[in-house]
Amino acid sequence: MTGPDRTTGLGSLLxxxxxxxxxxxxxxxxxxxxxxATWLEHLAPEIRTAAVxxxxxxxxxxxxxxxxxPLPQIRAGLEPVAAPEATAHLTRFAxxxxxxxxxxxxxxxxxxxxxxxxxxxxxxxxxxxxxDGYSSSYGLTGCTVDGLVAGTDGARFxxxxxxxxx
Length: 166
Fold this sequence. Notes:
Elements: H1 8-21, E1 24-29, H2 39-59, H3 71-77, E2 79-81, H4 83-95, H5 107-121, E3 126-129, E4 131-132, E5 135-136, E6 145-152, E7 156-164
Antiparallel strand pairs: 1-7, 2-3, 3-6, 4-5, 6-7
Helix pairs in contact: 1-4, 1-5, 2-3, 4-5
């Protein structure tokens, strides 16, 4: 790659969001066509990679973890969310246990980092989640509960996935 690495700042922000709460993050370059309608199709393999990684982590400690969601079903199970919702999901998934509603990071700090992640991808970015408001509408990892928020501007992507078992 020539020129400055446009993913460095994004990665630092995501790493800081994930550090306290144990969420899984991924970021990088995405080679998607200019049509935003195709971006989820190109982002889905990155989401699947994160889901498999979380599944493998939890399957080591609990034999009842189900297999992760196959790639075609990932695309079908995600809902688009607006930037403010993406910020709210990033904040919640980074700062609070999805099962026990116990804080794992200062919510104000998480909100600041989440806002910066969303701003980094910019106003033309598209965002998706497997949550509708407060609850998971579609599991990805095979764990008891998981929460994903993923976005792309067509050239870069960012995602945060938190999975937990009871």
